[in-house]
Every structure is written in structure tokens, then in C-alpha cells.
Amino acid sequence: MNMQENDQDTGLTIAGKTYCSRLLVGSGKYRDLEETRAATEASGAEIITVAIRRVNIGQDPKAPNLLDVVPPSKYTILPNTAGCYNAKDAVYTLQLARELLNGHKLVKLEVLGDQKTLFPNMPETLKAAETLVKDGFDVMVYCSDDPIQAKMLEDIGCVAVMPLASLIGSGMGILNPWNLSLIIEQSKVPVLVDAGVGTASDAAIAMELGCDGVLMNTAIAGARDPIRMARAMKLAVEAGRDAYLAGRIPKKFAASPSSPMEGRAT
């Protein structure tokens, strides 16, 4: 969302609720639930994504339950539609999540195009978004970094748009900062980078561009030390946000002395 620069960060507001942390993290790919708990705590994140098709949050009462280590009393659980390849499956998955989470409305929609690239299928994404918004969901939506498609999703009523920086799980970082900047400039809802972050500098760059937040999973869970990487990502998001609000100096093809030249001794 195009924010007015000031020296006070008022937090990330999504669907009427304000969060202190601008880092959102996933809950998959960890070694076990204890590592999930420790990394989540180290990240400082308040919104945790959960792949309803892959993670148990009560569907199987006999299996370990993710909510035992990331309880809804402490975190905002963000059910997502990872693994869905059409609008119908995505809508059904989030309706199931609403039942499991006692009427929970905030969800993350992603409809994938294929299993190789995991690139968003935008026609199906738009179709699912329209259905879910009409059904009363607050929809955060994974999308391509196309400003036109992002605007269409905002016009449908999505509460946040989440363009990919690069392919899911690739760690390639932000490949097209110009498109992201166009989306940020036009959007009246939060814009969060989703997918492609590999290390802390990627997260900082996203925030320096003016993104309202960053969502990641593999970059933390796949690191050699996930808990340390979670702390690094927390600091990177905070530093990038501060740099954005502070306002960087312009780039120019000339040197500029650090010390003032006026009044110097001759």
C-alpha cells in the first residue's frame, strides 16, 4: 500500500486488525513441531500460514496438531490453499478451514497453474477470489507481479495482494522490482511479497521498495539453522521498513563529500 512517509510506523493493518510485525511465516517444511514452534517465536511473526490440505489442525484427532505449538490464542492463523489448481478446490478448502477454525474469515488464496513452476493461475485465482469475497471471507491473495491483475483483485474486494518475488521455494529473491513498485504505487490495500525470498537481504529489499510486509516459509525452514534465520528475517524486515520510512539518498553519478565544505580551514 502506498504509505505516506513519516517517522512513526503505525503497524500493518489487514482486514481491520493491526499487527506489530510485518513478517508473516509459514508452518511447513520444519523437522518437527518443536522446531516449528521455536522458529515461529524467533521470527516475531503474528500471522502464521497453514496449508489446510497438508497440515493437521484438527482434521485428524489422532495426529499431532499444529495448533498445539502455534495456538490461535497467540497467533492469527492464516489458512491457505496450497496444492489447489482450480477455483472450486480452493473455495472448498477455505470453507473447510472456516469450519475447523470456528468461523475464521481471514484466509490466503493461492490457485496454482502447474506443479513445476507453482506459478499462479490468474483466471482461476480471480474466479475463486470473487466467490470467496461474496461468501464473506477476508481474502489475502497470492498473485503474479502484474499490476493489472493486482488491481483487479483489489477491485474484487481482496484485503491484501501478495505478488510473488520469484518462484515459490526458489530463493531467487526479487527478480522484478519495477513491477512490484508499480503495484505498490497503485494499491490501496496492503502489498506483501509472497514467494522467492532466500535470505535476509531479499526481505530488506522488499521492505525498502515500500512493501507492507513479507511472507516466507522455505527461506527459514530450509536454512541450516532455521531459528537463527528466523531472527535474521525479523531484523531484516524491521531494517528495511525503517530504511523505507527514513528515505534513501538519491543515486547519482558523482561523488559527494561526507563532511561539509563550507567553513573549512584553508
Write up what this structure looks like.
This protein has helices at residues 33-43, 87-100, 122-134, 147-156, 177-186, 200-209, 218-221, 226-246; strands at residues 12-14, 17-19, 23-26, 47-51, 76-80, 106-109, 138-143, 160-163, 192-194, 213-216. Helices cover 35% and strands 15% of the residues. The protein is an alpha/beta fold. The protein is built from eight helices and ten strands. The chain starts with 11 loop residues before the first strand and ends in a 20-residue tail after the last helix.
Shape: globular
Give a short account of the largest sheet.
5 strands, parallel
Question: In total, how many beta strands?
Answer: 10
Number of helices: 8
Strand content: 15-25%
Structural class: alpha/beta
- Give me the Rg, rounded: 19 Å
Can you give the helix content as a percent range?
25-40%
Give keywords.
single chain; 266 residues; 5-stranded parallel β-sheet; 3-stranded parallel β-sheet; 8 helices
Give me a quick take on this structure:
35% of the residues lie in helices and 15% in strands. The protein is α/β, with parallel strands linked by helices and 266 residues long. Helix 1 (33-43) links the parallel strand 3 (23-26) and strand 4.
